[in-house]
Each structure stands twice: as structure tokens, then as C-alpha cells.
Records
---
Amino acid sequence: MSTVLKAAAAYLVILFAMRLIGRRTASQQAPFDMVVLFLFGGMTTAAILGEDRSFTAAMTGVFTVGLMHVLVSWLKLRSVLIERIVDGTPIVVYDGGRWAEDAMRKLRMQEADIRTAMRQGGMTDEKAMRYAVVERDGTISIIPAEDG
């Protein structure tokens, strides 16, 4: 039972920590970001299993984390509040020539991140961009300006 409780608590702690870290997706992560994720995994495994390195304890931990994920997904379907807490909401960081500096600071994003997404979308001129939105999963959507 101890493994189940520790795995459930670890799931919630890691979920909270990931929300604090921010919205970078795997494709946008720098090596620095990947180090944090690997450390989370190692520390969590040690904390959940402790001295019990048995196959049974490991599988109990795996199934508990899996069931926690299913539970949180189910709760997100039934509650907009839970969905917003777990996944966040899209955030506009560029609106018709103006950078939302406060929002970008909270997301720990730079103009260079948005410009990269703009170029990846085939735009070379910032004036061609109407909106830039950081989506819930960390991807950046670029909405082009309408031609006159």
C-alpha cells in the first residue's frame, strides 16, 4: 500500500512541478529542459520504490501512475476548472504589433521563440503576423495578418 500512496503522490507532485516549469514541448526543449525531466524520473523512482527494488513494487508503481493519469484525464472531462489547472489555457503573446511582455515573462518565453515559430510557419516579416498564441501544450500558433 505504501508504494501505491507514494506513486499517487509522486504523480501529483510531478504534475504540479511540470505546470510550474512551463509549456515547452519536446520539440522546443533545450538540453537544459531535458536534464530536468530525466532528473525528475530518477528521483521519483527512488522516492516511490525506496529500498523495495522488487518487480512487484515497480509494477505497482507503474500501474498506480497509469491509473492516476486515467483518473486525472477523467476529471478533466468532467470539470473545466480541473482541465484549466492541469492543461492551462492558450495565451496571446503577440497582438497586431504589440508584444505581451507580462505574459511572455510568466511563460519564460522570449521574442526569439515566437520569431522562430513564425519562420517555421513560412513568415519572414513580423508585420505578416497578426497574433501569436502559446497553446496549452506549449506549441506556438501564428495567425497571419489579413491582407488589406
---
Amino acid sequence: MTKPRVLKLDAFVPYRLSIASNTVSDVIAGAYRALFGLNVPEWRLVTVLAERGSVSQFELGAATRMDKVTVSRAAIGLVERGLVRRSPNPEDKRSHLLALTAEGRALYDQVAPKALALEDAILAEFSHDEVATLLGMLQRLQTAAGRLADPET
């Protein structure tokens, strides 16, 4: 008879991923807040808008995996600061499109190099090949979890 597995939290991959993610996010959030007055959801929206241009809040939620309330709050804060503008969505009258303003783009252009420098510092002890392997493994984990969440995919 096989002995049943025992849950050990420190060896439980979902827990370790969450702890690692929270730790990295906390470091980055502190830097963004101190340097640019941005929280993590705001930074994610700014980055997606910089990469994709004008998109709806629904698309922002899908791209960042943040819930619609978090996206909405972040968007409102960015609009109030003049970093993002809202415009009617010609394809869906019930939604708006969000895009970076010139000031938002300038902020992104300042923040992006800092984000890359933080990433470099966090990954300094990993080789290029290890980072590539890690990214591949994270993608595979996300795909596998996605299949469990939606078995029809």
C-alpha cells in the first residue's frame, strides 16, 4: 500500500509561486511607489497601454489577469492624474477605450528602464539559460492551470 502524500506548505508549488510572486511584487511596488507614485495595478495598465495602444478595460483585465474592479480603480486613478485618457469605443457603446496621454508615455519611458534594472537585480544570480528555462516553465504552468480552469481549451 502506497503511503498518501502529505501536504508540506514549503514544498507545495502553488504556495511557493504565490510567495515568490508576492515578494517580487512587493519590491517592485515599493520602487514604483517611491519613484513614480504608481501602485502595481496602475503600472500594469500603463505598461499594457504602452505596448498595445488604445484598449478597453475588458482587454486590460484579460491582459493583466486583474479583476474588473482593480482595473477600474487603477484606470480612474490614471485618468485623474492625466496619464491616461478615456474615449468612446466605436465598436462597443457600453465601454470606453483607454490610451496613454503624452504625459503617460513620458512616465512609461522613465519607468521602463527602472523596471528592467529591477528585473536584472532580481535575476542577477541566474544565467541567461536559467532565465529562459524559468520563463518557459512559467508559461507551461500557466497553460496547464488554464486547462484546469477551462477544460474545453
---
Amino acid sequence: MTKTTLTPRALYEQVAEQLRQRIFQHELEPGAWIDELKIAEEYGISRTPLREALKVLAAEGLVTMKVRRGAYVTEVSPKDIADVYRLLSLLEADAAAVVAETATDAQLAALRSTHEELRQHTHNAERFFALNEQFHMQLLDIADNRWRNQLVADLRKVMKLNRHKSLFRQGRIEDSLAEHEAIMQALLARSPRAAAEAVRTHFQNGLLAAT
């Protein structure tokens, strides 16, 4: 069996992804200091690829570099969250309008399938969270604007620093599902205006739960 040799670039990208997931899962909490020496030893790597990985996460807004103090998991303020939700609402409402007008029947059926799976996991917050994001990204893929997709992907990384709190609030999962149903019905009715409005409502309610 041929041994695979990782390039330095592949290595730091893998490290960035591992740290990214630890941040999303709150193993590394917002505001936590990132112990570079400990993590380098844990992963069996030098500090060079780790520092490159931290630069990637800093560019995404997930890590904050402080002079002479090192790297910290970014803490998001209520204003940060409000700003992110506002931008996501604008971008995804526009995407929903495009989808309502241009999606094929097969694309809407695939989106509906994800929605139905979402409905089946209201008692599993982690799975619901994953499917919720899948639904939104599927919607964006159908709208087919790579620039919007990149913006949304970056914004959603920041949102994940706080998102679990909103979904874990009592009743929020059920409310979120109902909002997704409204979005889905508007899409199936081929109503761009209703679809955009349903997405805006979804984000407005999500922001209220997140703050």
C-alpha cells in the first residue's frame, strides 16, 4: 500500500478544518485561548502548520489574533449577530425568490425531501441543526450564484459561534420547522415575493431567539 504524503498546504488545511469543527461544536468556547503548544502536541505537528491554520480561521472571523497574547476563539457581540442575520436575510431572501421563479420540479422535489427529513428530527437538535443548514445551502445551490454562496458560507461560519443557543431554546425547533414549511409552500406555489418574505420572517425570528 502506497503511503500518502501530505503537503504542507494540505496539512494546515486539515488542521484548520479540525479546529473549525471544534469551535462549531463548542469544544473550544468563544473567548477561549487557543493553546498552540498543547494542540500541536495533540495533533503531532509542528507549530508552523498550526499557525497557518489559525490564519485561515482568523480570515474567516472564527479566531481573533491578539498581539503578544496569541489566538482566541472569537466572541461575537449582539451587534455582530444582528449584522450577520441582517445580511443573511437579504442574501437568502433574494435566493429564495430566484428559486421560486427558476427551479425545476426535480430541484423543488429534492428540497422538499430535505424539508421532510427535517420534520422527522425535531427531537434531535444536533441532527435538526445539520439538516437546517443543508436546506439553506441546497436553496442557495439551486439559485446558482457562486458569489452569493461564498458570502453566505462565510457569514454562516460566524453565525455558528452562536447558533446552537438559538435552536436549543425551548420551542425554537418547532417554530423553525413551521417557518421552513412556509418557505417550502411559497416555493412550491412559485411565488418569489412570498418565498422572499418567508425567508425574511425566518431570519427575523431566528435573530430574536439568538439574542
